[in-house]
Amino acid sequence: MRPQRRTSLSRALIVILLLVSAVVALTPLVWLVAATTKGPDDLFHYTFFAPRFSAQNYHDLFTKVPFLRYLTNSLFVTGATVIVQLFFSSLAGFALAKYEFVGKKVVMVIMLTTLLIPGQVVMAPLYEQLYHLGLVDTRLGLIIPGAVSVFGIFLFRQSILQVPDELLQAARLDGCSEFRIYWDIVMPVTRPMIGAFCLISFMAAWNNFLWPQILLHHDDKFTLPIALNQMIGIYGNQYGMLMAGTLVSVLPVAILFLVLQREFVAGLTAGAVKG
Amino acid sequence: MNLFPFGKAALSIFVLTLLAGLWLVAQPAPHKTTTLTYWTFAKPHYEAYQKALPAFEKAHPGVTVDLELVSNTALASRLQAALLANVDVPDLCEVEIGQAGSLFRGPQKDIGFSDLTDRLMQTDASHPVSLYNQMVKARFSPYTSRGRIYGLPHDVHPIQLAYRRDLFAKLGIDPNSLKTWDEFVAAGRRVTVPGERYMIQFSDSDAGLGMEACLLQRGGGYFDPQGHCIMDNETAVQAMHWYVPLVAGKHPIGKDIGGVSSQFLTQAVENGYLLCMLCPDWRCKLIEEDMPRLKGKMALMDLPAAAPGGPVTSTWGGTMLGITKHCKNQELAWELAKYFYTDPAQLEERYRTLEIIPPFKGAWNLPVFQEPHPYWQDQKIGARYIALGPQVPFQYTSPAIVTAKNKLSEAMVACIQYYNIHGETGFEPFIRARLGRSANEVRALLNRDPY
């Protein structure tokens, strides 16, 4: 077989394989979209799309439950968590990357060790702590425990290590304060990493289920995953609304990814190739 | 100095957060100080109680009740943690039957719920019959520990069979002739076509979907009234021996597809793949909503008896209401419990919303239970369930109830595997040994509890 023909054949095989994978990956999403467009009579009768289109589920979603409030709660809690986490993680990452102090290695080891402790283990003491602080059933109770991310600190430390020390020394010679070095020099230089971190952190906070489920008691504070879970009941499931709500809840993350994909990829690949 | 050095991505998130925060500030949720806190895990209960509360608060000036909807998956662990740490404990709490036993762990004085036995037994001149005697007694059994009652039952949940009436007629099955399980199985063997049509939805992996109901109907269960594990007694052995050939071997008549509610189940019933399902009262509403196209094609029949003249029902699911010891105003909490669980107007509303009959017999003569239901070919489904209420079996519990349920499923799967390979040869000794092993594991767990 000639090499050119062999290349075309292998390319065709790859395309077929990718197409099959795409169909497998997209089928649940198509099923989800189809389910949102079916009325109660058709919901389970047709596996995918029904002959009759219905917007009933979307109408119910915004009229029968306070969905806009759930969405806003999710946006607020997620956004605040990302911003607070970004600030503290980058600040700590900066300190660990660019300062020498006694016990630095020990701090790093302890920090990284905490990554090995499952989050569920600390939930009971954390709950008690928040109860005594009066933060149970509050949005602040969701934001504060996530204010510092060890993963984020490590990510920023590794990224800031690439920033030349000479740049920082030049700034000091010009009379720049340490905070200003962090704010005006280090952060702009590590922007690609910030984009990637924002997306990862946003997705984690947006999809967070277990902790809000434990902490929140009133539906006016429920975030989307909790509100959607409430539609699964012991006596009946509001499947149509659940599917419509799920689709709407996927949209912000999808939009964010589309907007940030260039920064995200740049952040993940930064430092992958050494010049 | 840079105003915001984190870039466009973080800035857009920051702006979004600010806008969301401003919206939330502009739309504050109503805040009130409360006298009683009430946790429920079922949204329909929550909505019904929300409607009912204003009347209770009006009748009790100065009293406010805070209803909280807590996810069922989080409730038991959160309640257990709250009771142990004595933080954030509700005054009243509804608990699902499968989780109730685990909350009665430890010495009785340390159980987090108030003992309701004396209140339930109380009589006076205006109430010559105690509340205990006005309720279905069997429904107290899952909420009783060492002879004391810690929960008020929310429901009875008798089981009937929901069946495809049109297909039964087409296949020449007369439901009135299926008085015993033997007759039912014989009819099932005649009409079942493996891979195409099965007589009944019975699970071969989850004992909760079939096996447990049959075991309870035969007078068996997981525990005796003293909390001893009995899941390997003769009743359990015979129930397993009877059940396994229905879902395994060469001629099964039972198949599970889609669990309690799913697209698979709906399509299976619509297409005649499954002809019957176990149907406690709570499942009626579920079937009506999941299978609207079968309106007028479905009907209910009594469960066939295990032996002639035996009970023609069993039970599946349930909820209790407990008052925690943390509650400062026990009298008021008891008033609220009675209001939600025995007030005829509340119970009528509950039936209209959920089609669940109450265990409070004083409400059984409400006209609502006599109404014909068009989905079920105008059968008076409320009256049918009420007629079965007194036959509902007792089911005793223990702190090891969750483990016991899992162990029964494990034993059932092992028996099915054995039966598929060896058939009847040595089957009964195997069942005896396998159930014994599961029961011993539960006993070992109970023995580790020093109380």
Report what the structure shows.
The complex is a heterodimer of chains A (275) and B (451). With 275 residues, chain A is mostly helical. Chain A has helices spanning 3-36, 56-63, 67-98, 104-114, 123-132, 140-143, 150-161, 165-173, 178-189, 191-206, 210-215, 224-230, 239-269. In chain A, helix 3 (67-98) crosses helix 10 (191-206) and helix 7 (150-161) runs antiparallel to helix 10 (191-206). Chain A is globular and about 75 Å long. The model of chain A has no long low-confidence stretch (mean pLDDT 88). Chain B has two domains: 36-156 and 318-381, D-Maltodextrin-Binding Protein, domain 2, CATH 3.40.190.10; 159-315 and 394-448, Periplasmic binding protein-like II (D-Maltodextrin-Binding Protein, domain 2), CATH 3.40.190. Chain B is 43% helix and 10% strand. Chain B starts with 6 loop residues before the first helix and ends with a helix. Chains A and B meet through helix 3, helix 5, helix 9, helix 10 and helix 12 of A and helix 1, helix 3, helix 11 and helix 12 of B.
Question: What is the compact description of this entry?
Answer:
The complex is a heterodimer of chains A (275) and B (451). With 275 residues, chain A is mostly helical.
Characteristics:
heterodimer; A: 275 residues; mainly alpha; MetI-like fold; 2 domains; globular; B: 451 residues; alpha/beta; D-Maltodextrin-Binding Protein, domain 2; 5-stranded mixed sheet; 4-stranded mixed sheet
Domain count of chain B, please report it: 2
What are the low-pLDDT stretches of chain A, counting only 5+ consecutive residues below 50?
A: none
Largest beta-sheet details of chain B = 5 strands, mixed
* Count of individual beta strands of chain A: 0
CATH superfamily of the largest domain in chain A: MetI-like
Write down the overall geometry of chain B: globular
- Average pLDDT metric of chain B: 92
The radius of gyration computed from the alpha-carbon positions of chain A, rounded to a whole number of angstroms, is 24 Å
CATH class call of the largest domain in chain B: Alpha Beta
Proper CATH architecture of the largest domain in chain A: Orthogonal Bundle
CATH fold annotation of the largest domain in chain B:
D-Maltodextrin-Binding Protein, domain 2
User: Fraction of residues of chain A in helices?
Assistant: 55-70%
Which structural class do you get from the secondary structure elements of chain A?
A: mainly alpha
Helix amount of chain B: 40-55%
Counted beta strands of chain B = 11
Distance between the termini of chain A: 40 Å
Strand content of chain A: under 5%
Structural class designation of chain B: alpha/beta
User: What is the CATH homologous superfamily assignment of the largest domain in chain B?
Assistant: Periplasmic binding protein-like II
Walk across the major sheet of chain B and give the strand order: 2-1-3-11-6
pLDDT averaged over residues of chain A: 88
